[in-house]
Amino acid sequence: MRDPAFDPLTAAIIHGAPDDLAAPAVTLPESSRVVSYTRAGTRSETTVVNTASVPLALVLNTAYFPGWTATLDGAEAPLYRADILFQAVIVPPGEHTIAVEYALAVGASAAGVRGPRMGAWLLALLATLRLSRA
After folding, report:
1. pTM above 0.70, yes or no
2. How far apart are CA 126 and CA 134, in angstroms?
């Protein structure tokens, strides 16, 4: 990234990409368009149709974070970290539909956020009740 020839608009560093993925020459897709974007509550989905003559990494300007999943033509696809912060999906040549979705798991929401807060609230309530009886 420190190389003066590095252009972040046309190239990306893909973290954890397969070793057999050769770094292609900087190539932009012939066509790439967002066909839908949905956001409702804790769910978010972006669908992109991409056409290219060579394999490439489709980089999405969305923060890489656990809970995101990707599909390529309806089949599960690996989601990679791009340029440290963003998401990327490796796309083979041809026309493909890529969907990237985030959905906060109900269990994760309840246990990861509400659970500790509820526990702290109950401890404070019990301590208050105990002090008021003393």
Report:
1. no
2. 12
